[in-house]
Amino acid sequence: MGGVQLGRRVVATSVFAVVAFGSSGPAQEEAPRSRGLEEIVVTATKRAENLQDVPISVTAISGDALDAAQENELSRISKFDPSFRFIDSGSDVARNISIRGVGTNTFSRGVEQSVGTAVDGMVSDSLASSLLDFGDVERIEVLRGPQGLLFGKNASAGLLNIITRRPTYDFEAGLNASWADGNEIKLNGFLSGPLYEDKLAGRISFFRNKRDPYIENLGGRDTNDRDEWALRGKLEFRPTDDIDILFTYAHAERSPQCCGGPAVRVVPGGIADQAGVPRGGENDVIDNGAESWNVTRLNTYILDATWQIGDYSLTSITGYTDGYGSADARLLFPFESTGFLDPNLAVSEIQLVTQELRLTSPVGEMFEWIGGFYFYEKKEDFSLQRNVDLFYIGAATAPDTFGASLLNYVRYTNTSLALFGNLTWNATDWARLTAGLRWNYDDVSTAQVVDYDPNAFPMTVPEAPPGEDRATLDDHGISWRVTGEIDVAEDAMLFASAAQGYKGPAANTLPTGVRAVEPIIAPEIPTNFEIGIKSEWWESRLRANASLFYTEFKDFQTAATRIDPTTELLGFFLANAGSLETKGVEVELVGQVLPNLTLSFVGAYIDAVYEEYEGAPCYQGQTEAEGCIPGEVEGGGSQDLSGTQLGNSPDWSFTAGGLYTHPITDDWNGYLLGSYVWRDTMITGTTGSPRTRVDSYGEMDAGLGVSSADGRWGLQVFVKNMFDTFYETGAAPIDVVGIDRTHILAYTYKRRVGVAASFRF
Q: What is the pTM of this model?
């Protein structure tokens, strides 16, 4: 059962129905209704509100839903919200998420995510510094559209808001454990209770995840495993009825053996073909004697204090994160290349300080408001050392005789200040108008040195021209949102909103930074329009929500590539695309069709395209006939991507789920749950290369379990990818060695069967 508590009342998440006995999830903060779906309480507007009363497109996923579905990975949120997508990479610092087709895709450390992340009220500087998958989660909220108004900074495309469980003043303890094919082992547990009367309480939780590699390596160590753990401690102090102080410390580590990309097709007679590289449409084998590694360590401290001043609330959230990440990625080729990269070592050290001060007015008045101040400072030291043996791309006659090398050192600093306010006018019992405004100031600076090691090979050329540069840019921007709501029925609300966001300047910390025309590029500005409905019918047994949206991004911050004509190596740089737009419709249906049967469906159609992007780099191997204009940019050609689809953005996607429960005895209940996820065809590259196209696929998961009526015991047998459907999550060519296409495989590309058990004190 993996932590879900099954009982006599129904708790439905907004996407995947879960039935729970006893207390579970945020719905218990409100008195349960006599029939129908339970309330879902969210904090998407910095207030605790019923999801159905919030005029924002948001999906809420309870911790119990994650436990029941045997999911605790960031990559699997798209199973619950089809507008959300995770893009994996060879290191944590390059992981990326997108909402409604839009996300930040670059290796530069000086760029923050278009989709922001917040954990327990603290906004993170990057995805790697926000979380390493999930443990002891109360709920996850996926907020779609610009969200920088109330949540820290940036978040131009959306926000992932994660709330972990607080200490309790009654003793609680629990343990979940599961095992699945591939020797996948997941353990998580918690201990919570009072430490001194009703004044002091504590909670400690942990998780540990391991999985054997699923990419076989004929020439060395198998790759693509899972290895992470985390520990979180919380202390809550209530010296008076009006003061609540919560201190959180969390430590997390992740060290996978990553990442092998098996070859699909090779160029006949090319280097890879001559080397006998393993290949095939469903290939999951590489042959490489090199070893890659990845280590991420995070320490996070949060002090969250709330003072109730009469009917007003004053909240202070102070956060500090220190993070360390290092990765030596050498498995770039799916065949023997021990000497190709020696080393390819990237090291990053981050310090982040945030401070939010917020005053909130009481609810139920004609005017309700929130106002506050926000401070953010990030410092990062980054280094990259890389030696490339050109023998392995056919540019040298023997190993270790001719190569390229690179040394890149960067110090990046971003200081931000903001003032924000949000005002709601409850005009009548059935109509409300909300307006919000945020002023944001950013000061961005970089100091970069690019060099090379002349002793790396007998003959060495710089991979990038050596140089040194310092750049500073300060900028300020305005974010705003106006929303109107009308209650058209007792449990039905129409809303419409217009909003403009702001994502601050971004620094090019790539080796191209010292010779870039703009080492710090312009802010990213989204403008969003949305209309929607939130409704419940049939005595609250049917929930029907939908939204129609249009968002335009000016100066979208993205990655670009080119081939260096001297070294024939692929280079990366940071750029502003002219503009892009994303529009579509999202639908959510949850129905308690029978007292013991709940069904759900959530789907999205998203059309995300570059509206204007002239001068975009050509993809590898692109010809004039395919749209590449030669000589337009240094070292290669350019193309016009205007009107083309964004990478990693399927047009259609949906998830259908269901849960059936049945009493076995007075003390035990049985249940069957399942979900089917479908994703459309999409291009996964940023330059429109047809070789990055991946086909549509569908994936079926199911679980069969029993739970004690008191919620203390649970057992579940589950299966992931029940029909053993092979699918890809990404693809790319490596032309310099004659590989026409490689692909990225998720760990569920093969069927996995497992068993899970849980115990609660």
A: 0.91
